[in-house]
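Note to self: keep these together.
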Amino acid sequence: MVAAASLVVAVGTAAGLLSALDTRGGAADEARPEVTSSPPLAPLPAVSSAPPTPGASKSPSPSARTTQPRRASRTPSPPSSTTTRPEPAAKPAPGPVSARLYRYPDSQVLDWVGAHRDDPRRSVIEAEIADRPAAVWFADFSPSTITARVRAVTAGAAGAGRVPVLVPYAVPDRDCGGASQGGAPDLGAYDGWIDAFAAGLGSDEVIVILEPDAVAQTDCLSPERRAARFASLARAGRVLKAADPDARVYYDAGHSGWNSPAKQAALLRQAGAASAASSDGVFSNVSNFHRTDDEIAYDRRVLDALGGPAGLGAVIDTSRNGNGAPADGEWCDPAGRKLGRAPTTNTGEARIDAYLWVKLPGESDGCMGTPGTFTASYAYDLAR
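Structure:
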């Protein structure tokens, strides 16, 4: 079967990602999901990359983005493990959470915990998922409220002395018209939305996961439209970093089972990821299940091929990769998955700036529950 890259949920049925959606019915400046870590601002030393890892084939990277997960059939990739390994018998320990990361106090999992104090699964879900920082997604196109909603998160993080992780997800033609389609009506509107997004960043440290899948999944675009998107993404990075010099902006590197490092680096270069004016590096494995070690090796190869400043690094989504990707390539709430390493900015790995929980564990891809909604049974299976 095909291995999905990362699961994006279509806007509207959004997975917890919809975190910071404009609800129109409540306070317009409220964002919903949690936030995750942020790598230290000091640039990390460059090191030689690890030996090559397999995975030169495409596979859309669905991420728990904002609505429905993207189907693996959209861009097939070899069974996530061209390097198949046996799954560990015991649940991997997530490990300590970095004290620097901000947990946004409004999310579907926190709502569930508060409403189910007597549920026998509650203590596990609370300790292993709800108490950990995760990303806040901004997946709807709402220019009039985006500044206030971003500011609600960044101001809360600044007040707590923590670093939030924000996911702008509104580029036009996202998911190539698939299940996670949506976003701004055109690139001109998107540029304005990014300007408004940047106005809410403030002046403290923040991590921005810029448009999951926007670079890796562009085969559906004509050369002209691809070039226009990349120009807009490069502009977005410059705008975000100019608005907040302490913002760290990371660009979409797909994952180790999708494009080859050389191909992905070539795309990233066109999107501005090699420029210090717009980029601090790349992110991978968003909403996917590929093993951390494979992602580390892949990201280092991408960074080597990308070039650019020596301080460019990578962040990896470890929210659901504790047991690796299923051998059959299943991407929709596959059984047997576990939480991966806890969110932290202290990875101990050169050029790997952070492990983050970008996809919110327990928010369904659409098989265990409605796409984008918190599903207690799924969360419990991941956490126990």
